[in-house]
Design goal:
This protein is α+β, with helices and mostly antiparallel strands. Among the domains are: 1-50, no CATH class; 55-168 and 241-271, Nucleotidyltransferase, domain 5 (2-Layer Sandwich), CATH 3.30.420. The chain is built from twelve helices and ten strands. It has helices spanning 2-14, 19-29, 37-48, 55-58, 60-66, 69-73, 123-138, 156-164, 191-198, 246-251, 258-265, 279-317, and strands at 78-88, 92-101, 104-114, 144-149, 168-172, 180-183, 188-190, 204-212, 219-227, 235-239. The protein has a ten-stranded mixed beta sheet with strand order 3-2-1-4-5-10-9-8-6-7, sandwiched between helices. A hairpin with a 7-residue loop joins strand 9 (219-227) and strand 10 (235-239). The longest helix is centred in the C-terminal third of the chain and has 39 residues, at 279-317. It is globular, with a radius of gyration of 23 Å. The chain starts with a helix and ends in a 16-residue tail after the last helix.
Length: 333
């Protein structure tokens, strides 16, 4: 764990996954007894070789203790989880489940494998099952779970996995695809034609109940759609929940994970520049990145809460009497 702590601290200090930069930051901070940055870098490579550094051993138990479920749920028994995928250039593929939180997201579980390389039959769904199982082990009992996902997941095999766990789902539909919809009267339609009919332009919205996934033998689902003013296209989601507009507010939590992917790649850890080779090494680097992101999110939330408390205190005291003066700008709280 000490090795992992050094890697995480160096990653945060360097704001980069490039081992040479991490090594330089660790050396500057004097976190080890190494006599030169290149010696630190060799130690970091040994850390990435350490098979004991897994999410099960070094992340999940600690994360379960760190998460303030009472505060996160705020009296509700519902939790929203987001599933999405990303890639490291064209070399590695990342599947991840996150907990949307304060406009960002806490990474709960992930899997990584080589991109553009043929995998054994059933590999993808085996990885998905493993990640979902890890997430389920983190959740306290008695929660209503709602999984939100983008349009790549509007397929029966994914939905069936969530249904088997008793989890609800809200998934963006590929409106322009050949997806079929069966209405409450048993009439079958193309979802594309229905969406164009009921969402003709910005300012329109539509909701209904029926079934989708004809090739899989149909699954009951609601369709909730909107074409918001100022947007380029329709937003249509499929869900097992009732067809209410609130479904769209829940789905909006999915967008909270996008800053996390930007942090991974361009605005934070610069994952794609890491040049770390091998899936196993990448998995340990992702472990360090997950810890670094959790720590920075925690610090950011603490600072936001401090500023909000300060602002509330100032408002409670009311305006101070004094001579009028010109507006010269807004001071930070």
């Amino acid at each position: 764990m000490r090795r992992l702590a050094v890697l995480i601290t160096g990653l945060i200090a360097a704001q980069s996954c490039v081992l040479a930069r991490i090594a330089a930051a660790v050396y500057t901070l004097e976190l080890t007894q190494a006599r030169a940055p290149e010696h630190v870098e060799r130690g970091l490579r040994r850390t990435l070789n350490d098979a004991r550094l897994t999410p099960t051993a070094c992340y999940h138990a600690e994360l379960a203790e760190l998460l303030d479920w009472r505060g996160l749920l705020q009296g509700s028994r519902r939790v929203v989880l987001a599933v999405d995928e990303s890639s490291h250039t064209d070399a590695y593929h990342l599947l991840r489940v996150s907990l949307p939180y304060w406009g960002g997201a806490v990474v709960l579980a992930w899997a990584v494998w080589e991109q553009n390389v043929a995998q054994p039959a059933g590999h993808y769904w085996a990885q998905m099952d493993q990640v979902l199982a890890q997430v389920a082990a983190l959740l306290p009992p008695g929660l209503e779970v709602v999984v939100v996902a983008d349009r790549a997941y509007d397929i029966a095999p994914f939905v069936d996995r969530l249904r088997a766990r008793g989890w609800h789902w809200i998934i963006r539909a590929k409106v322009e695809s050949s997806l079929r919809f069966r209405d409450a009267r048993g009439h079958e339609h193309g979802l594309r034609a229905l969406a164009h009919q009921h969402l003709p332009g910005p300012g329109s919205r539509w909701r209904t109940r029926g079934a989708v996934f004809k090739k899989a033998g149909w699954r009951e689902a609601s369709v909730v759609g909107v074409w918001a003013a100022g947007t380029q296209e329709r937003l249509v989601v499929l869900t097992d929940l009732r067809p209410r507009w609130a479904v769209l507010r829940l789905y909006a939590r999915r967008f909270w994970i996008e800053p996390g992917f930007r942090t991974d790649k361009s605005h934070g850890w610069q994952w794609e520049r890491s040049q770390v080779q091998g899936v196993a090494h990448q998995a340990r680097l992702l472990l360090a990145m997950a810890w670094a992101s959790v720590l920075m999110l925690a610090l950011g939330v603490a600072e936001a809460q401090r500023r909000l408390a300060h602002l509330a205190h100032r408002r409670a005291r009311g305006p101070r009497p004094g001579r009028p003066r010109p507006e010269i700008g807004v001071l930070p709280c």
